[in-house]
Amino acid sequence: MGPNGSGKSTLVNTLMGHPNYKVTKGSVEFRGKDLLAMTPDERAKHGLFLAFQYPKEIAGVPLRSFLFAAYDAVTKVRDSDYKKISPIKFKEQLEEHMKELKMNPSFADRPVNQGFSGGEKKKAEILQLTILKPLLALLDETDSGLDVDALKTVAKGVNSMRSPEFSAILVTHYARILEYITPDKVHVMIDGKIAESGGPEFARTLESEGYGKFERGKRIHLS
Q1: What distance in Å separates the CA atoms of residue 6 and residue 49, rounded to the nearest whole number?
Q2: The domain containing residue 112 runs over which residues?
Q3: Which CATH number does the domain housing residue 39 bear?
Q4: Longest C-alpha distance within the chain, in Å?
Q5: Predicted TM-score of the model (pTM)
Q6: Interstrand relation of 193-198 and 58-62 (parallel, antiparallel or unpaired)
Q7: What domain count does the chain have?
């Protein structure tokens, strides 16, 4: 959590390998590997996933085809015994996940996010999450622009992933989503640094008191 411009989105985009950001100092290790030495697709194949704050449209690429290719690419890396899933079997799994997220199955045949509402785009991000089953999900303001019903549906999708094999970093401005997703830890980021941490109840304190009490620290320089 943290105010606008504090570095939350910069952090998760940098971890995923966004080309607009360059790490000039420090290191990042993920499951014993140098994360910064990997390309974005390698990071995805090794278990990272980024749900975008503003999901992009991909014209001409059906959502089903996009997810089928992504599922095959990441699963063959993580599972040495993996045999390519049949398109029919994948279609059945996809439709089941879409049903749980209250998504119209016809969306699977539409280009990725094209013509989707804001809420539908966020549901599509969580659909990708539940299909690809990453080890670490970076959720960048997944709650923004959602009405209460959509928020509950998205939260249910994230909660369905909870297990000893799954972790998530959830970026948000508000405590609203934390009514439905109970965090293990809450961290406040100010000017690119963690200013204070606490448990789930800390989020409610922030909601009532705001971020004014935190002193501005030195900003992380990224280019």
Answers
A1: 22
A2: 8-177
A3: 3.40.50.300
A4: 56
A5: 0.88
A6: unpaired
A7: 1
